[in-house]
Amino acid sequence: MPLAVDRYELGPLRTNCYVVRSRRGAEECAVVDPGGDAADLRLELARLGTSCAGILITHGHFDHLGGVADLAEGTGAEVWMPEGERERLERYPEFAPVGVPGRPHAPDHLLSGGETLEVAGVSFECLAVPGHSPAHIAFYADGELFSGDLLFAGSVGRVDLPGADWDTLLASVRMLSERLPPETVVHPGHGPETTLGVELARNPFLAELRAVAGRSDGQAAGARPETGDASGDAGA
User: How many CB atoms lie within 10 A of CB 172?
Assistant: First the structure.
């Protein structure tokens, strides 16, 4: 049975927050990146008939953190986040723009990638995907990828911020392409959902990856002259 995933745009930048349940009607959920408006989100959880069993944070930028303290303290849910970005939550006012709602909070569990979490009956694999931020984590469960600000529909995360790096971001996307199937549904930090295969084939910011894949395919075809067929589809 596929996961039940509901999306809410929260906080000043309308950042995507995801409520993830093992099925429709499940009494518990995981909440990914509550960027603000925790009171409204709790009303939505009540409407769904579910309670927050855990909060998962992809990275430490303020627009993904604004509702964490209120949601955690209001529900008793524990918080998982990247170890390398914990200070952005623990010292939230120092990193958030002046006047943006949100409070400091100490995460309960720290992640570096490679962990598997069991929250609300859902098993999440934690994948280290630095590039947009230095310790960024994506969460993968049952064919669904919560990519934070690494990868969007038709775009990628900014790399003009402190700790960001273009080559590192591309390497993270390449790792996902090698590890996950193309039909993986990508739930990004902003904008609509997409699939990994669609982005690898069409995203204009991933042309460099397609070029590398095209060269590799050409070399492989050259090593097997009996086929005589190097279609070049990977570079399209």
Answer: 24
pLDDT at 21: 98
pLDDT along the chain (236 residues), means of 10: 95 97 97 97 97 98 98 98 98 96 97 98 98 98 98 98 97 98 98 98 96 66 37 28
pLDDT of residue 22: 98
Question: What pTM was estimated for this model as a whole?
Answer: 0.90
Instruction: For the chain, report the end-to-end CA distance as a whole number of angstroms.
Output: 34
Q: How far is CA 37 from CA 1, 190, 195, in A?
A: 30, 16, 28
Please, how many CA atoms are within 13 Å of residue 143, restricted to the half-sphere of its CB? 10
Distance from C-alpha of 213 to C-alpha of 221, rounded to nearest angstrom: 12
Q: How far is CA 35 from CA 23, 111, 113, 127, 190, in A?
A: 24, 19, 22, 21, 11
